[in-house]
Amino acid sequence: MNSAESTPGEGAGFPPGLASLVAQAGQRAKARPVERWDPPYCGEIDMRIAADGTWHYRGSPISREALVRLFASILRREADGRHVLVTPVERVGIAVDDAPFVAVEVAAAGEGASRTLTFRTNVGDIVAAGPEYPLRFAIEPATGGLKPYLHVRGGLEALATRALALELVAIADQKDGASGLWSSGEFFAFPGSGLG
What we know:
By secondary structure, this protein is mostly beta strands. The chain contains 3 helices and 15 strands. The chain has helices at 16-25, 65-73, 162-170; strands spanning 41-49, 55-57, 60-61, 75-77, 83-86, 91-96, 101-109, 116-121, 126-128, 135-139, 146-153, 156-160, 173-175, 178-183, 186-189. The strands form 3 sheets. A 6-stranded mixed beta sheet has the order 3-2-1-6-5-4. Strands 9-8-7-12-11-10 form a 6-stranded mixed beta sheet.
């Protein structure tokens, strides 16, 4: 489930944990068909998304959440890995320190192989991890800590906060001797655990 097609007010009927995520997501910017737009590339602009998810323009943080969500709605990852903001008439490159989004909350429904992990991002996306929206894990070189990433849309990922990463490790399961997480019928193994 990806909330690109739904609005946060449609939380009625969801399990309590998921309804809470949907309610907290707030109003997200309208989904844009950025994958269909092919405007000319107009160079880089002085915009950066920090590793903590803070958007900066000309070195200053962008404090208006609605503006951040608007920019997030026109963000695209190119085939070469660059991140660009896309409109029907222009495409400009921006810098991204790690992942462009941050997974800030998770609702877990079910147990083991029947579990579904549904995440909320800092820009209002609600995404259930699974085959279409996989989780991947990296090891932080400096600390050896686990860095969980969630595919959100179009090659764009969300990095889990440190608190959320610890919460995920606490609910880890085992499969064929490997540690990892189940969601939507898919097992996502931690690095070095035997399946990853």
